[in-house]
Design goal:
177 residues; alpha+beta; five-stranded antiparallel beta sheet; 4 helices
Length: 177
């Protein structure tokens, strides 16, 4: 009888921890979609292009972060993984090296270029569709993909911004909170 009680307690604690982890990862987080001015001004970033399942982009985020740990990382995901087979999904992953009129550190740019990263500048835009999702755990990424893409696609279809969701830009700051 005491072993049954112990097993019940262990099972309850395990389920509670897992539930807390999934909730913390964003399971019930609100997905608020907005239109208006962009949260990111004109920016320059360094990136590597990858074709394949998005879950394999983590290594590029780690590489970009290892070269410039003080910089925010950014991912540009071109395809909806619920509609495009994993091996054909495309993304560009890297770091934001300057924003607005700020100049990029030339030495840092050289380190990225030596590691095989390319440089690209986004022009400033005036109107965008944005949303955010918490990036708190490893599970936040697939959870965000499953929850955010359908909501963005529905929003865009309803408000007739584009015929399809073509690019999802995902800036990530990897420093501890």
């Amino acid at each position: 009888c005491s072993s049954m009680l112990l097993l019940s307690i262990v099972l309850f604690v395990t389920i509670s921890i897992l539930a807390g982890y999934f909730l913390y990862s964003g399971l019930l987080s609100d997905i608020i979609i907005l239109t208006g001015s962009p949260p990111i001004r004109k920016l320059m970033f360094v990136y590597k292009f990858k074709e394949g399942p998005y879950k394999k982009c983590a290594e590029l985020f780690k590489e970009a972060n290892s070269i410039g740990p003080e910089l925010s990382c950014i991912g540009i995901f071109y395809d909806d993984p619920t509609k495009v087979p994993g091996p054909q999904c495309r993304c560009a992953v890297g770091s934001i090296v300057s924003e607005g009129e700020d100049k990029a550190d030339k030495e840092l740019l050289k380190r990225y270029e030596t590691a095989g990263f390319k440089v690209f500048s986004f022009p400033e835009v005036t109107h965008v569709v944005t949303t955010s999702f918490p990036h708190r755990t490893v599970f936040s990424i697939p959870l965000g993909v499953k929850r955010v893409y359908p909501r963005l696609e529905s929003y865009i279809k309803v408000f007739c911004f584009f015929s399809q969701l073509s690019v999802l830009v995902h800036p990530i700051h990897l420093s501890p909170p």
